[in-house]
Write a structure and sequence with these properties.
The structure is a single chain. The protein is of the alpha+beta class. The chain folds into two domains: about 15-35 and about 115-195, Probable tRNA modification gtpase trme, domain 1 (Gyrase A, domain 2, 2-Layer Sandwich), CATH 3.30.1360.120; about 35-110, 2-Layer Sandwich (Alpha-Beta Plaits). The chain has four helices and twelve strands, in the order E-E-E-H-E-E-E-H-E-E-H-E-E-E-H-E. It has helices at about 50-60, 95-105, 125-130, 180-190, and strands spanning about 15-20, 30, 35-45, 70, 75-80, 85-90, 105-110, 115-120, 150-155, 155-165, 170-175, 195. The chain is globular.
């Protein structure tokens, strides 16, 4: 049996280069976040306080208790619901194992690195693109940097968070929906021009 190599959820889908309108600067830029380690954390019954205290002492982060993203040192905790967070690390660490060892007494931890697909999207017309299918008010007064949401995008269950006020967003969907998300985003961004970069 040949060695199995990791494969991006967007392999064969995202063709680097320009898509849609070819004139002018691209209104939207997209790249896959294949570099992220992902894990789901769910607080055990009655242990949310212990979990929050351990995360604060070990990582210097206060777990969000509302739809927010907090990050430090390449590690982020993104609120996913009461007592639930999606965690993301950018440095290639074995995040699920690290968290299981650190907080396994207080939370259930499951590796999502190969179960979720994440797109990084930005650009001057990214809001105009997303509002075509995102069931959220993305106006800066309503959704700002560090805000997060569990939502639906073009009938696809997704988790979305805003990184900065450019604006830049990241969107996570289950791996099996990566193709559906990209096809919708590609069509929605076509009128503005979309530039796809490498992950």
């Amino acid at each position: 049996m040949p060695d199995l190599a990791p494969r991006s959820a967007f392999a064969g889908l995202l063709t680097p280069g320009r898509h849609g309108r070819a004139e002018g600067d691209p209104g939207v830029t997209v790249r896959p976040r294949d570099d992220l380690s992902l894990a789901r954390v769910i607080a055990r019954k009655g242990r949310a306080g212990d979990l929050a205290s351990t995360i604060r002492s070990r990582y210097g982060l206060d777990l969000p208790t509302a739809p927010k993203r907090v990050a430090q040192g390449g590690l982020a905790f993104i609120w996913s619901g009461p007592g639930q967070w999606l965690t993301a690390a950018e440095d290639g660490r074995d995040l699920a194992r690290e968290l299981s060892e650190a907080i396994g007494s207080f939370a259930a931890v499951s590796d999502q690195s190969n179960g979720l697909a994440v797109l990084h999207v930005s650009g001057p017309r990214v809001r105009d693109t997303l509002i075509k299918g995102v069931g959220l008010d993305l106006h800066p007064r309503a959704f700002a940097p560090s805000d997060a949401a569990v939502t639906v995008i073009a009938h696809i269950g997704a988790q979305l968070w805003q990184l900065d006020d450019r604006p830049t967003y990241e969107i996570a969907v289950y791996r099996s929906f990566a193709g559906s998300l990209w096809r919708w985003l590609d069509a929605s961004a076509a009128e503005f021009g979309c530039a796809v970069g490498a992950g």
